[in-house]
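Appendix B, record 7
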Amino acid sequence: MALTSVPWVEVRETCTKFADFSLIDTVAFDALWIVVETGYAEVDGGRLYYETSGKGPVLVLIHAGFLDSRMWDTQFELFSENYRVIRYDVRGFGRSDIARTKFSDFKDLRGILDHLRVKTASLIGVSNGGRIASDFAVEYPSMVDHLVLVSPGMSGYKSSGPEEEKLWEEFDKQMKPQEDADREGRAADAVEMDVNAWASAQTPADRERITKIAMDNFHVHVDNPWKLQVPPEPRTWQRLSQIRIPTLLIIGDRDVPAQILMVDNIHTHIPGSKKVLIQGADHIVNMSKPNEFNRTLLEFLKQQTQEIQA
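Structure tokens (predicted):
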């Protein structure tokens, strides 16, 4: 474990153009410092890199499947003013170990929370991170305060019907050339296809940032991190009706069309869940529309907390 301190004024100047800090109740910004704890959690068959900062209710940020925990830079710094925020690199990504034996992402997350002595947390997952969050929620429901699924994947998912199936088929056809790029080691071409498909609404600066992170994780195209993945049984899709955790689904209107229908379908299967469509956002909602994403998430958490207290 290591501790580092960052002057809040530097963080604020870096992030002001990306985030609305009026969403957070703070006093004397310039006198504040962000203290970040970094370390590795030992899990079955490897080690996972994590960072944590702030005090208060725990939020866990889980990244998308072609990126790593750096995609949460803005939210990690912003949310740590009122929450204890944890972000980590999923096994096979970032600074975490590559899988060498069978493993389960939801068990890895449990290992990180146990390592950090966290009893309950709100989970926020984007794409593959949404799959991990929902898997965890059905396996360890008593440990989840809130569940936020952002353009999520889903273990055992069944499409809503012919229209969605057709859209996924069209998308698979669109991404087919990526297989050749992967096989031939053309990393830049393969990553560009991912960015064009999943991050089409980003600013030039964020597109460059996403491309950099995706290039750093290109090895997942060659050494599939999911080949040793053991999903929960029964699969999460079959257990959505059992979820009683306050749940929010977020999707961007510029996401992949099939993904939009998928979120609609998941929404109808989770009792009492809420769904928000963010205009102008792509698959990586927290980066393409950070202010809207931050406001939506924080208002949801605040509202749910008030309802519980009432």
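Remarks on this record: The beta strands are 2-7, 33-43, 46-53, 58-62, 84-88, 121-126, 144-150, 247-252, 274-278. The two ends are 39 Å apart (CA to CA).
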